[in-house]
Task: structure prediction
Amino acid sequence: MAESIIVINPNSTTACTDAIDNAMDPLRMTGGPDIECVTMTEGPPGVESQHDSDSIIVPLCDYMRGRDNDAGAFVIACFSDPGLHAARETTDHPVLGIAESAYMTAMTQGEKFGVISILEPSVKRHGRYVRQIGIEARSAGDRAIGLGVVELSQEDKVLDRMIETGRALRDEDGADVLILGCAGMARYRDRVSDALSIPVVEPTQSAVVMALGRLRCG
Amino acid sequence: MAESIIVINPNSTTACTDAIDNAMDPLRMTGGPDIECVTMTEGPPGVESQHDSDSIIVPLCDYMRGRDNDAGAFVIACFSDPGLHAARETTDHPVLGIAESAYMTAMTQGEKFGVISILEPSVKRHGRYVRQIGIEARSAGDRAIGLGVVELSQEDKVLDRMIETGRALRDEDGADVLILGCAGMARYRDRVSDALSIPVVEPTQSAVVMALGRLRCG
Amino acid sequence: MAESIIVINPNSTTACTDAIDNAMDPLRMTGGPDIECVTMTEGPPGVESQHDSDSIIVPLCDYMRGRDNDAGAFVIACFSDPGLHAARETTDHPVLGIAESAYMTAMTQGEKFGVISILEPSVKRHGRYVRQIGIEARSAGDRAIGLGVVELSQEDKVLDRMIETGRALRDEDGADVLILGCAGMARYRDRVSDALSIPVVEPTQSAVVMALGRLRCG
Amino acid sequence: MAESIIVINPNSTTACTDAIDNAMDPLRMTGGPDIECVTMTEGPPGVESQHDSDSIIVPLCDYMRGRDNDAGAFVIACFSDPGLHAARETTDHPVLGIAESAYMTAMTQGEKFGVISILEPSVKRHGRYVRQIGIEARSAGDRAIGLGVVELSQEDKVLDRMIETGRALRDEDGADVLILGCAGMARYRDRVSDALSIPVVEPTQSAVVMALGRLRCG
Amino acid sequence: MAESIIVINPNSTTACTDAIDNAMDPLRMTGGPDIECVTMTEGPPGVESQHDSDSIIVPLCDYMRGRDNDAGAFVIACFSDPGLHAARETTDHPVLGIAESAYMTAMTQGEKFGVISILEPSVKRHGRYVRQIGIEARSAGDRAIGLGVVELSQEDKVLDRMIETGRALRDEDGADVLILGCAGMARYRDRVSDALSIPVVEPTQSAVVMALGRLRCG
Amino acid sequence: MAESIIVINPNSTTACTDAIDNAMDPLRMTGGPDIECVTMTEGPPGVESQHDSDSIIVPLCDYMRGRDNDAGAFVIACFSDPGLHAARETTDHPVLGIAESAYMTAMTQGEKFGVISILEPSVKRHGRYVRQIGIEARSAGDRAIGLGVVELSQEDKVLDRMIETGRALRDEDGADVLILGCAGMARYRDRVSDALSIPVVEPTQSAVVMALGRLRCG
Result:
């Protein structure tokens, strides 16, 4: 199958793209679609505000338009799902957002999902999006670790905060499944899940799985 | 009071800005704030798709940043409320969106609001936004007249379709208050209201009223 | 413009009317409508129960009927919005309730509103009303300061409790905008907002702003 | 058992009280509580507006206060549930509203309830109340027969309209259980149910059943 | 009246059936229907998991089919309402579930209900059911005492935990009415209510009251 | 990879299993998991009532227990998702329901989903489930074609009714994505989608895609 899934990291931090790329390995199957992860170099180092998120929509759609001939499906690998609906107008290929896909996936793994976010403003942005999707009845909470995208490489510090935040979501807010609220958190998934004994959904994987389904089932 | 309310029409159709400007006259009071209506010339002729809406966020925020010193408050005069939350990060002045303001105003005038939109894709976009705001319990429906922004100057045709669409919202969907789903429809408000005998909310007026309140009450 | 906005304090505490009247000053503009604040002397000293709220509906509507010729719009200045829908049947002039207007205004200033109420029974009453309006998705919480309407003049005590209550709404319940849950709290607005660094909505101002919009825009 | 259930018809139409009284017969059991139906002579001939509904709250509470010593429980037999929460503050005895009880009962008999109302304004009033109760997910619709309370004795006309209205609720709105939206419709229940082959809930019966439960189970 | 209400305890613990039977005494009236409580001996000792709940549906429906000629109405006396909708297909007699009935009854006694459950998995199961019924706007919370059905006879331990759990529901979650989340808790109702000064709904009583209404009112 | 996805058709109609098996072909990839489709011979010919759905839970869970050692994941291929939560208690492997998965998948392909069901009782059953999942804000409607499971092989008749039903969901109810409400409808997917020009979600494919994701991503 010649078609491929193009996973676009809309921030310019290549360490983030590398982390995403590693997380894709289990989904690379002989006989399955290629999964290509790219960095959108025009993006900000991290998407941390609504303005960051909105400002990358035009270049993101331009990029997709340029790759339209060699793509089978696109995944927007930023947990704000920037430009998801604009992108769906731009191309006839399936476009999946990692937040939307993660929420959908989490709802099959628990009664109430909790989101581990990077910074406080993300929490409000996600709140608006959860209402937009229409699934607030299933949301337990959303809490920030207080570290930005470029700080996500500070392994010990990040892991500690993620576990602490996940514990609050589980014990105080009643979450029984967690979602990583940033594509750059992929590497911490197993450790957070092991530490807290509840499933943790990695959003880019969720979206690529759905993209694969769309590609194969037409 | 030196401060002014800057009403930004983010499409490049000056006829649309003129219509908005006329609708502002009743809100211009001797001792009240100035109300200045401007056209964002970088915008598309009309905001008719999600991509149109998203693509004007960056220039809109840039424009606000440039006017930050002489503005008291900003109003984004497009019913998609493009960049509303990005704009609120950009400036410390109050920023009102005309859709948000119109929904809030309509809920004080009836049990269920109906929206008269321009084109079919607007209906889905508005649907996402109504859920995002969290007020779908008060929405009766949203129907398109099937004419784009630049066609809004065809008086007779537009008025006929608006009345017909408003009647369907009232009689089939149960709306008891209507909202004009495009800033460019302002001139038709009174005639639609008279023809259907229910209140019709003009969104830019709603937003400027709220902006005035924010300016005066601090 | 000869028409005026009549703001009716339906409790008999004139100190409360005076506080409301002061809060109206910024909205009195040359060229704008008169804003007249009146005390409904038949009312109880404070509206603290559902029975208090319901018992003033008949005299309130009678009063409006008597003033129908010289009014442009009415504002019911009690946070229970007593008789709002009965009043709208009674007169053809716009009638605004301060709770409804405050909720609508707050939703343009934050993601989740918190209400500072006087006494515990108000919290349940407001809860019913928030569901009736259909906006519970935007409510963070409602907490009482434990002081009745006539005690609202005890400046230091009231201010301390309001700040403490507002802090709980902000930090424990997640409110990012507060609403004063009693017309008699108007004088404390700026100090609460300054102490907590989040916007605080004064409900009578919200309603008068909306009334002004209705008067001017027809 | 000496205690009795006092069913108060808050309109002054004794034919309405008689119809209610007849509907109570099946619930009068040898060892069960007395069921006394009374007419509140101060009430309007029918409760047809929000103002009608609100204006009877004070006399209704006064009446309950006067009967507090010989009552076991009170039922407010008007489908607007006027003064339900004020009454619950007024007496320590259980107070049931017939609309609230009917909605609760209907939800155990079908997936979606439809309400047969008297006049158009009732529909909006009921809509606010369904949201206040928080059960709009279970509401199929509410439609008026276009006849007022005093016209409910015109047997053939009323029955025809009720069946026609119920059919629209069933076939167009998807109701699988109907509720009579006025205490004065009690006599038509069986005929409407037979004609449409779906259950029809008589609200005063629903409330008296619940009152009986409260009385016996303490 | 020859018809009777058959209350089926679908677990095999006869002590549980006895407790239910005692709770029925106040509802046994001369002239009223018989109330017969039976143990479904094929059931598990207690319904503590979704599998327990689902596994008793077939025998429960078989049992009802066998008793169809001598029953007037059936009550399924397990707070998971196992097989409620299957049972309603099986027999033409009214079938009431105790959870559904308890929720409906509680909503007439307070603004927000809290549920005292046996074990943690019940909480998730109930959460799904509250959403299914469509009443989550009225739910304050659901908390487990951490004791299984067969342990419910350990009076002191159970009572302490119930009061402690009810207090958390009241003070931390905002419940103003409690529901016993297991038929086997009936004997503790009055003591929990007295200790916490808020109403406590016993679910089998709620269902039998509704069954009685259905039997008498046809 | 030795692990396989076991897709269980819980009805005894092998034609239905064959249709499912064919629909799985695009998801069979060289390096991906095996997908085995089995018929649960103890099941009824079709799951058409709540009782049918509930009665297969015990044998379904027994079957899974027996296959626990050679399974990687299970899919319950009946649109009622019978026993989904009981199954998740029964095995530690991922268990996906086809309705849940289809709803989640559809929400990434349109604003409002419509379900094409077999018979009228399914519509009510699905309605309860949509509320249980908490996604009714995204549901446009659910309509039955009026043919049972064993009639699904009557190609022309079934296809005509599916297209007619899908058209009503699209044009009257506002659906912009359709879901096949029965596993046995898989063969009609492309023809319905082509005829109506909107995406149609085949539920067993949706579930197997999600199962594949769970298997690969751990």
